Amino acid sequence: MNDAAKKLLVARVRAALDPSLPVEEKKMFGGITFTVRGKMCVSVGKDRFMFRIDPAIHDAMVARKGCRTVVMKGREYKGYVYVNAEAASSERELNEWIGLALDYNRKLVAQS
What we know:
The chain is α+β, with helices and mostly antiparallel strands. The chain has three helices and six strands; from the N terminus they run αββββαββα.
């Protein structure tokens, strides 16, 4: 995936996030990470998204086509999933994933 394609994915996330939310963009995880209310929510990398979701639904979500558990330095991170760009190619699909990430974000902030 080239830079233009990555920029398109970033633009799609920007458009999908509610502008009234306290969103910040940071360079992390080899891409652009969007934090909401100070917590990591979604990241855009090369040909994929990374979503932070409720660990309680993790196993059900990784069973979906184009979704897999995030693994860093050999460690699996339950509650963090990679979703291939083509598995969230429609606005509806992307909004569903972002909705799951925002739902968990609200829970995290409430626990803080």
